[in-house]
Write a structure and sequence with these properties.
Helix content is about 30%, strand content about 25%. By secondary structure, it is an alpha+beta fold. It folds into three domains: about 45 residues, Uridine Diphospho-n-acetylenolpyruvylglucosamine Reductase, domain 2, CATH 3.30.43; about 120 residues, 2-Layer Sandwich (Uridine Diphospho-n-acetylenolpyruvylglucosamine Reductase, domain 3); about 110 residues, Enolase-like, domain 1 (2-Layer Sandwich), CATH 3.30.390. The strands form four sheets. Strands 4-5-10-6-7 form a five-stranded antiparallel beta sheet. A hairpin with a 7-residue loop joins strand 11 and strand 12. Helix 11 runs antiparallel to helix 12. The radius of gyration is 19 Å and the shape is globular. The chain binds flavin-adenine dinucleotide. Flavin-adenine dinucleotide (FAD) binds next to strand 2, helix 7 and strand 10. The site of flavin-adenine dinucleotide (FAD) has 29 residues, from strand 2, helix 7 and strand 10.
Amino acid sequence: MYYLLPDFRFVKPETLREAFRELETEGAAPIAGGTDLVIDMKVGRRKPDKLVYIAHLPELNGIRDAGDSIVIGAVTKLQSIVDSELLRKHAPVLPEAVNEMASWQIRNIATIGGNLGNASPAADTAPPLYVLNAKVVIKGLGTERVMPVREFFVGPKKNALRKGELIQAIIVPKVAGEGVGMSYVKIGRRQAFTLSIVSVATLVKVEGNEIVDARVALNAVAPTPVRAPHVEEALKGSKATAEVVMKAAEEVLKDISPISDVRASKEYRRLLSVALTRESLLTSLRRAGVKVEV
Ligand SMILES: Cc1cc2nc3c(=O)[nH]c(=O)nc-3n(C[C@H](O)[C@H](O)[C@H](O)COP(=O)(O)OP(=O)(O)OC[C@H]3O[C@@H](n4cnc5c(N)ncnc54)[C@H](O)[C@@H]3O)c2cc1C
């Protein structure tokens, strides 16, 4: 079956300011790597009149050290995130998750801003960014607002952007250190080159043998990626043991509302959510330096 692109105008602005002016027009949409948007246009889900190319704009690109945090420009390619020494050192769960996305070829054209902008419930950058408590910097013509990534996702394929706004960057706090462990576990229909059936990111902080902080996030189990507050509460203040993790992971069923779709049934997603939450938490605890026996 052949899919044809509908007619549209393509503009490549010379400056960010010019991009904002172009985006003010009715029917305009930003395009970065195009790995989501072009497919949506080919299958008729989206029909923008004008595509405003943004992936070449230097103000939106690059990964930089900002002291307590790392700032990732929205058009930074996914593969640059995998390769970033800065992120691997201070927020390793993000490169770990991105390394599981798509393929090397796609990761060299697709961007982190596009993954968030597409607002899929299965977006793979969401769970790690949720547990890192990352924020999105949103820019418009003469406006700027910053919000937690968790608030940016408002529904399936719906984000918090207003007309004419762009994601400029993502702010990732530096959280790695003594007693901190984090991990990402993804199950798709194949080993690679595929979207999540369920993915889980976790981050734990341990002092002595006590879990003093626990963050858990999942994708593909609700209309948006979610944090799992019931699991987190069951862990905080508890001993860092396998028994505690086994019990706490069951709580995830209170935090999710999966549906059946082309990739999996809701029953399978529920089973996977418990199993992957358990697996990711055990890995995070081990990475935090705790010896947990199962
Ligand atoms: C074969 C294949 C495999 C894939 N595998 C995965 C996977 O494993 N995990 C996963 O999560 N995704 C996967 N994807 C989806 C896709 O590659 C990612 O979501 C990617 O990060 C999208 O980035 P992009 O730059 O191509 O976005 P685009 O297609 O350019 O844009 C996507 C949406 O975001 C908007 N947008 C883009 N940039 C901005 C910005 N700076 N500000 C505001 N809005 C913006 C666009 O208008 C559009 O609505 C896959 C896609 C393909 C084709």
